[in-house]
Amino acid sequence: MAWAVWFTGLPxxxxxxxxxxxxxxxxxxxxxxxxLELDQIRKVITPEPEYTEEERRIVYAxxxxxxxxxxxxxxxxxxxxxxxxxxxxxxxxxxIPAYAEVYVRCPLDISMEREARRRAGHAPRxxxxxxxxxxxxxxxxxxxxxxxxxxxxxxxxxxKMSPEESGKKAAGAILKxxxxxxx
Length: 183
Description:
alpha/beta; 5 strands
């Protein structure tokens, strides 16, 4: 049976970096896995995002449904998305029988520093600055809540561990939880 694991944490915490490293580790172990990066998917679902709660609910539900469809095709999935409210992640939990979360913990100040240095790519830049100046009222951990997972299979603190170590620990926890499901 294929599984899905959601990498959740504050913007700038290192979710994408850790998920990519875990993907490398799992692939090297012979595990077939597909990573769904919300920042890429959001550009298709909401090309001009407003980040309202309703929009987030729809986008996260679509992401959870994509992961469900992939697991039904026997493809293991790594979900790379903030999912700031537990209710968003609970949708995936309700749809996918073999589901878990990895909490990518990082203090807000360090996440803010990292996000400010982020290279242009899929993720929006300058979100914390916009949140601090009032240009945005929807920044998780700053002016909207970020709810930590209640029972992650592992918490990796990216302020204390390297991306490689964090990814390796996450991959190890996934293998421990789900075994060698090759998909």
